[in-house]
Amino acid sequence: MQKCRPRHRANRVAASPGRLREEIATIEKRLAQLGPDGDCGYENAMIRFYEQQLGMRRKLLSAGEL
User: Fold this and answer.
1) 35 Rama sector, left if φ>0, alpha if ψ -120 to 50, beta otherwise
2) Can you tell me the distance from the alpha carbon of 7 to that of 18, in angstroms, rounded to the nearest whole number?
3) Cα 9 to Cα 5, 6, 15, 23, 52, distances in angstroms
4) Could you tell me how far CA 56 lies from the centroid of its own chain?
5) Does the residue 53 lie in any domain?
């Protein structure tokens, strides 16, 4: 019987605010290259993924700046 894995990574190292800002800038640049609407299903999926990643990183950044 397999054990269920937790959904979070316990060994994940907290990223510095500078690193998070770099990642946010990189993701925003990639989103700008894709444009507001994807040309195909793959691009639409990538846009959704990048938007989710942006939200996660912005949340981490704001939590670290409190």
Assistant:
1) left
2) 26
3) 9, 7, 14, 19, 17
4) 5
5) yes
Secondary structure (3-state) at 2: coil
Give the pLDDT confidence of 13-56 residue by residue, as tens digits: 578 999 999 999 999 999 999 988 878 999 999 999 999 999 99
At 64, the pLDDT band (50, 70, 90 cuts) reads confident
Q: Which domain holds residue 48?
A: 37-66
Prediction pTM value: 0.72
User: What distance in Å separates the CA atoms of residue 58 and residue 27, rounded to the nearest whole number?
Assistant: 11
- Residue 21 included in any domain: no
